[in-house]
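Hey,
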Amino acid sequence: MAIEKKLQTPSTKPFLRWAGGKKWLLKELDKYVDINNYNSYHEPFIGGGAVYFHLSPRKAIISDSNKELIETYKVIQNNPEEVIKHIKSFERSKEFYYFVRNKKYSNEFEEAARFIYLNQMSFNGLYRVNTNGEYNVPYGYREKYHFDYDNLLRVSLLLKNTVITHQDFEHSILNIKTNDLVFLDPPYTVTHNSNGFIHYNKKLFSLDDQYKLSDTIKKIKNIGAYYILTNAAHQTIREIFENGDKMYEIDRASLIGGKNAIRGNYAELILTNIIK
């Protein structure tokens, strides 16, 4: 495997909050896998990109099925200053939050600024739309929050060396080559690891999607590439993805709910064909 070094320092951080984000995983990765040696990096469920920003790869392809998310990444890649200008014009208040949430903007810079602003000011950083495709997450009590504009500029520099595409995970394997590294983090919740897991996750990532993802992993391995998969520690998931590769169960704390949230311990899985 060719040695791939970081492009940026670890100070480049995600610019979005994202439900199900993998910030918790960063301190665990080195315990279980050697992630220093690979060619290109791929992440088909980019979301907030915690692992991507942590690794800061010189060559990467990131993608997601969320078009608004991907368009925001692209705009930040090309012109972060223009986006920053619009974010700075947005007030930090409940009233203005709902004004922005209900407004349609005329250009890509304003739309990207809107996406970031709503993400940062919303309840728990959720992304949710109604049946009409309209963002409908309530305000999240973050009037004192300060956006990290310097980080947004560092994000843009890292993205200059990254191909950003709007596609589903099944199509992402078309770009994968031998000795590449693929990080797979499908949408799922860990708050129903036992009772109700399959029903609760149906709208996030269905059981059929999980089987398709298992087939995608087989194709990644046939190409001669490496993968890391995170998923819920549920017996059905274990059965779907059992393929002789390494499987680790990680217990972690999870914040449930919002203003009066409580923490509980939940288990997640790390699966990989990388041998440490």
